[in-house]
Amino acid sequence: MRILDSHVHFWQIDRPGHRWPGEDWPRLYRNFLPDDLRRETTALDFAGAILVQSQPDDRDTDWLCELDDPLVRAVVGWVDLTDSGAPCRIVELAGHPKLKGLRPMLQGIVDTEWILRPAVSAAIEAMLDHGLRFDALVEPRHLPTLDTFATRWPDLQIVIDHAAKPHASHNELDPWRDQIAALAERPNLWCKLSGLRTEQAVGQAIGDLRPYVAHLVDSFGERLMWGSDWPVICHVGDSYVDWVVATLDLIGDSGRSDQDRLFHDAAASFYTIDV
Predict the structure, then answer these.
(1) What is the DSSP letter of 172?
(2) What are phi and psi of 40, to 5 degrees?
(3) What is the rounded distance in angstroms from the CA atom of residue 231 to the CA atom of residue 245?
(4) CATH code of the domain containing 209
(5) For residue 130, with 0-12 CB atoms within 10 Å meaning exposed, 13-18 middle and 19 or more buried, which class applies?
(6) Tell me, what DSSP letter sits at residue 133?
(7) pLDDT for the residue 255
(8) 173 vs 148, 178, 209, 265, CA distance in Å?
(9) What is the number of domains present in the chain?
């Protein structure tokens, strides 16, 4: 099984602009770079990864774009979309061959409807002009807003990171379940099967994620892509391979027939990666 990981992070904690993780995240408070990922995936048929920003800082995005490593198949950067200079910055970034998308860190913004502000429109237009994708780092509170946003911009290809971080620690499925199903009806909405383990409580069984995963498979089908969320997955003590094995178990026999699409082809299609 070939893997094109739709969601990994690299960081250097001493770089300008680094904010997270800090010392209160001991398993994550060190540098994570391409060779670290290479060691984690040695036992796998690994085709590379989409490198996603982790810091809301232009310097971080510039650094990600400058990384010259064959494991990095695409980069999702950050831009302050409300800044008056955002369209020019987007034009600049779009000139980099691996820059495929942008991700505002919506989960850290208090205003749930921030993405609907008129000041964002010029930046979205620039993204559309240059064929960039939109990674939606959202929580369940954002899902109605995301529906409005996707309706407003039907030509913008959007992927929901980490399945919108459902409240898995409490085994809550609703209203997340209905909201996700409604979003999946929109052809410009995709979703990442990633980040669910870190939404669980300490010691909670991986099997408790089964109804979430089944719903995502049923709702998004070919528009569902696998992501490791490495190295954040290390925070719960899991390895990269642990999440691969867990996913294969969680999708069950019904999902196995499309596992090549889930683990490779969907990410390649969404991020327009030539494989």
Answers:
(1) -
(2) -65, -30
(3) 16
(4) 3.20.20.140
(5) middle
(6) E
(7) 61
(8) 22, 9, 10, 28
(9) 1
